[in-house]
Amino acid sequence: MRVPVAVVLGVLSAAWAGAADERPLICFGNEPSWGVDLTVAGSARVMLPGEEPVTYKGVAVRSEPRGEWLWRGTPAAGRDLVVFLREGACSDGMSDTQHPVSARVSLPDLRFLVGCCRIPSAPTAAATLEGPSWRLTSLPGKDAKPLAGLPRPVTARFEAGRVSGFSGCNNLMGSYTIEGDHLKLGPLAGSLMACPEPATSIETAFRAAFSGSLRQSLAGDLLTLTPESGGALTFEREPPQRLEGATWEATGFNNNRQAVVGLQAPGQITFSFAGGSVSGSAGCNSFRAPYTAQGNRIKIGPAVTTRKACGDSLMLQEREFLAALESATVWAIDGNLLDMRRADEQRAVMAKTRAR
């Protein structure tokens, strides 16, 4: 009989004689890029690509002779998170840095991750820098007007040793460490889409400046990163993502035939979230559906509509859109764009904030 990894590690932890060890660590890994923040006693914050961070409550136990310890905790509901930690040099595979602790992580869905942990050297600065999304407001050698006029802003988000964002044309991701007042970036990977100007030249300049060791300075909602040579990059803290407070205009949806299709005419379908309900126009009829959201996870439906009759093609579009909306399980907002996806990771609905 195959025994789940989480169960095996749980039995091992029960066999140890050790006291609680709440050593602050930030653990991370690549392929996929992930992070576990253990800087708050009794808490572990797990960050995975495309998923909302999840916080677990638990405790660590330690085996002193072996220099090993195990952190185990549970969320509000569901299976355990287990983090097995061991002292000793650990390479992240992306830089020459040797980290002091290695980590093996068993997620509640039995995914198994391997990586390294760093000891945060500047917890106050890290806590301020890490978490929010930062929007680039000035770039050395580039005018502010083209930068502000990009369809999608240049952004960076730092969390648990993993940086992600958008560099003007393509997404980016990679690793980082914080040493005192310096942010040290590892090699950055990303998508390889071609874009028209000025997006391409802005991305090239940003990637060149946003690399290596950068001195960080925080003042309220403003972040300045200064390379060893050249001018400084400045960022502004973006507000938290919110479904509520906007009217969304659908730009595409999954027709449940393995295709995301556009609308017959722009602006036909609009909707908004408020008070536990999503409502709007489905193209012909008005609709309303209950929804619940926890982090970036969402459950919608069933929807009810008015009973107006329209042409066959418009009624088909309406039915397919509502089915796609009810199939959404996760959501993400990037700038003014809403991306809702199904459990199988296929896109369910795409929308943009409607101009006022």
Can you walk me through this structure?
- It contains five helices and 27 strands.
- By secondary structure, it is mainly β.
- It has three domains: 5-119, no CATH class; 124-237, Lipocalin (Beta Barrel), CATH 2.40.128.270; 248-353, Lipocalin (Beta Barrel).
- Strands 18, 19, 20, 21, 22, 23, 24, 25, 26 and 27 form a ten-stranded antiparallel beta sheet that branches. An eight-stranded antiparallel β-barrel has the order 1-2-3-4-5-6-7-8. Strands 9-10-11-12-13-15-16-17 form an eight-stranded antiparallel barrel.
- Mean pLDDT is 82; it is low at 1-20 and 122-127.
Characterize this entry briefly.
With 356 residues, the protein is mainly beta. It has 5 helices and 27 strands.
Shape: globular
Computed over alpha carbons, the radius of gyration is 23 Å
**Domain tally:** 3
Number of alpha- plus pi-helical segments? 5
Mean pLDDT: 82
How many runs of DSSP E, i.e. beta strands? 27
Termini separation (Å)?
Answer: 60 Å
- This entry's quaternary arrangement is single chain
Give the biggest beta sheet.
10 strands, antiparallel
User: pLDDT below 50 for ≥5 consecutive residues: which ranges?
Assistant: 1-20, 122-127
The structural class is: mainly beta
Report strand %.
35-45%
Helix fraction, binned, reads: 10-25%
